[in-house]
């Protein structure tokens, strides 16, 4: 039996029902898991709904989890591995769109595009040259925190803007031309734009600390398309309010959904509501990959895109 923990999207929901006769947990009575948990062999879920230790404990015959999204901090990957349960996410198909959005945020903050748009709409474009100058993007220094699949796609786009790129992570990546910086603080001090693209979860919580933001400085811009938890948001707000940071482009925040007033009223902050992968094309590809992983597992017991962490 396949248990679907949450709605994944119109396409995936339909295919899971047609091909797997999926049981939709959110449509079942409260006692369903206790009565039927032992019949479940496959789970379809999403990074938002997750599949944590309690759910795993309720599914003693579970063999595979297919999750929509690339983050796996809401999935009990270690618990699943200990029981030989396969876990798949939907990586790679979203790299381009998330990297594109990171660049959109970077450009929007540096060139003050939303502020300029507000200026024109408010009827304030009454004389030439009244809007304040902004920050040049091309030829600057780009720092990437987490040169994974998405981080690498962000770095590749930097080459088109004639940027020197350096990165930070747990260690240098073999065969990568960009410079590795063992200290995130040093990377922030070196670069003009710091883009956060590492995974979320406890290990990366508040990696972008007050000290890192201070090193980035009043001329620096922070872009976060990874997880809100990676940035110390209180320190970020303090740095922005004190003029100790040049600006920020944020697709993800702590305590989503919603953004604190302090960020919403900063003119040098551009906010998007966690929409890195949210294009028609990419969302369709993600939904298809959730189903393709389950098809592959049913066919021969393998997953196409297993979590390797
Ligand atoms: P990935 O290929 O697994 O890359 C993750 C990177 O995180 C790795 O390069 C890793 O670098 C780095 N990392 C992990 N632990 C770290 C640590 N303790 N310190 C420093 N760096 C660390 O994942 P991906 O597919 O590129 O996705 C990256 C993240 O983007 C996801 O986990 C997700 O949270 C986020 N995301 C956001 C959106 C959105 O809509 N905004 C969409 C998709 C994904 P090392 O191995 O070198 O340490």
From TrEMBL:
Residues 27-307 form the D-isomer specific 2-hydroxyacid dehydrogenase catalytic domain. SUPFAM superfamilies: Formate/glycerate dehydrogenase catalytic domain-like (SSF52283), NAD(P)-binding Rossmann-fold domains (SSF51735). Residues 104-276 form the D-isomer specific 2-hydroxyacid dehydrogenase NAD-binding domain. Signal peptide: none annotated. Keywords: NAD, Oxidoreductase. Belongs to the D-isomer specific 2-hydroxyacid dehydrogenase family. This is 2-hydroxyacid dehydrogenase. It comes from Sabulicella glaciei.
